[in-house]
Amino acid sequence: MSNLTVSRHFVQAALGGAERLGVDTRPLLLEAGISPDLLRIEMARVSSDQFSHLLQLLWHRLDDEFMGFGPRRARSGTFATMCALAIDCPTLEAVYKQAFQFSRLFEPMVTMELETRGPKPQLVTRIEGEIDDPDYFLRESMLVIWHRLGSWLIGQPVELDKAEFDYPRPAHADEYRHIFHCALAFDSDRTALTFDRRFLSAPVIRDRSEMKQFLKTSPADLLSRPDESNTFTGKIRALIGRDFSKPLPDFEWIAAELHTSPQTLRRRLKQENTSFQEIKDLLRRDMAIYYLGRPELPINDIASKVGFTEPSTFHRAFKKWTGVTPGAYREGERGTLAN
């Protein structure tokens, strides 16, 4: 099971294009295993598996990989065709140039362009024509997909220095910290990702058989399940594990396991826009949400499983994370939330 969750905001934002086209999205939610009742809880979250499934259903139902947000439709298979061209590229720089050349064949153009003129390379959003993207979902998705596709092709995360957006800071901007793991800037003159030049020469290490497997669930998985294995956040999550019933390792032990000093690790986590305490809290939150989806588990047992000796302390923490009690959250997941 995946121990990552996705904010309710992104679920509702993803449905926006289909709803404007008159599609009844309730059956899509149910097929993805998401209770529409759950979305009435403002701070609710769904599993990355559920979100990935929902995106695949949306693409299939609309036959549009822009999900109704773009200036035109991107028929199913567009992303796969771009990937089929990218897999033969020797380096990441060649990948981004090839992907841009492919995307500009379609008019109006909706793509990312690699700019290498400045001190550091940037992937810059290029969108022609009018888009209907009030929640910024299309623009966020483009940044995430191009960044994570490149990282997957070279077998290492392209560490970002900065993510900037040509729109005001949205209400859900706090989620960006855990998506981009870098400095964020809003109200910029462009929407772009900045990274170190050394990544451009990184070789493509994937082959066609790996790409075939990858495309069974992508780009949905790229949006819902980041590969954090080489970030310090991801490494710490892996070291902590999922068993919160025993004492968690302390920060000094974690630093030693990662062959770094506590001071350096604190600095690197700050660069990734997080902290050791936040990583622990979010892991507990995501595990609690996972266990609440298993109706056979009493809530007091869940409290113990996620490391709380007192159920009352767990209730307070969970309400801080989601805005509701564990019992109300479970009712939302079951579709039995009272009006």
Largest beta-sheet characterization: 5 strands, mixed
- Number of alpha- plus pi-helical segments: 16
Cα-to-Cα separation, first versus last residue: 31 Å
Secondary-structure element order, N to C = EHHEHHHEEHEHEEHHHHHHHHH
Rounded to an integer in angstroms, the radius of gyration calculated over CA atoms is 21 Å
Mean pLDDT: 92
Estimated share of beta-strand residues = 5-15%
Question: Strand tally, please?
Answer: 7
Helix content: 40-55%
Broad structural category: alpha+beta
**Molecular shape:** globular
Q: Biggest sheet: strands side by side, in what order?
A: 3-4-7-5-6
**Low-confidence stretches at least 5 residues in length (pLDDT < 50)?**
none
Count of all domains: 2
Structure explained in plain terms:
The longest helix has 18 residues, at 137-154. The protein has two domains: 66-224, no CATH class; 232-334, Arc Repressor Mutant, subunit A (Orthogonal Bundle), CATH 1.10.10.60. It has a five-stranded mixed beta sheet with strand order 3-4-7-5-6. A two-stranded antiparallel ribbon has the order 1-2. The chain is globular. By secondary structure, it is an alpha+beta fold. Helix content is 47%, strand content 9%. This is AraC family transcriptional regulator. Residues 234-332 form the HTH araC/xylS-type domain. Keywords: DNA-binding, Transcription, Transcription regulation. Pfam families: Arabinose_bd, HTH_18.
